[in-house]
Specification:
about 190 residues, mainly alpha, globular
Length: about 190
């Protein structure tokens, strides 16, 4: 299963893009390219941000990039040894960025400041929604109610090969359908 963890990050961005494509086909107005880029970016950020303390802390140590790579690809309980501070920061950043409670507070705070909903946050929300149901209790369950609890919903383990085939098969199928519909609508009078 080593290496599948990277594919989860790709899938989050791809699902956000596919979701926008489906919304466009349904007639919803599309946001600006900048907003779309922010939405896709925020769909992948929760799986990247907790790597920052690992990268910054461990690159200064003997393990260097090897430790960062080993951490990114580690199965639960098999993470490489790191300093207590780096481990603590990485853990809490993961929890913060996978929490619907935190995302809700940020969403409402931005709504209060901007006097409108900030659309790019849909990327973050899509990440949380996908992870809640595609992370098992054995494989990094999403702490959706953090900071109240670290517990997560026991969903389907996304890193199972059969689920990966289904996930990427669906992504490819929807992408091909969108491309086909786009081409056929250009070709019709």
């Amino acid at each position: 299963l080593e290496g599948w963890q990277d594919m989860d990050i790709v899938a989050h961005g791809w699902w956000m893009g596919v979701g926008l494509g489906v919304a466009a086909r349904a007639g919803y107005p599309m946001p600006s390219p900048r907003t779309i880029g922010l939405m896709v970016g925020l769909a992948v950020v929760p799986d990247l941000v907790h790597l920052l303390p690992v990268a910054l802390g461990e690159l200064q140590r003997a393990g260097g990039w090897g430790t960062v790579r080993d951490y990114a690809l580690a199965l639960p309980g098999a993470e490489p040894p790191m300093s207590a501070t780096v481990e603590w920061l990485a853990h809490h950043l993961h929890c913060i960025f996978h929490s619907a409670v935190v995302a809700g507070v940020v969403t409402l705070a931005l709504r209060a400041v901007l006097k409108r909903w900030w659309l790019p946050l849909l990327g973050w929300w899509s990440h949380i929604a996908i992870d809640v149901f595609t992370h098992s209790a054995d494989f990094y369950p999403s702490p959706v109610l953090y900071p109240f609890t670290y517990r997560g919903f026991d969903g389907i383990a996304w890193n199972r090969p059969d689920f990966q085939v289904l996930n990427y098969g669906a992504l490819i199928a929807v992408t091909l359908w969108l491309l086909w519909r786009r081409r056929s609508s250009r070709d019709s009078p």
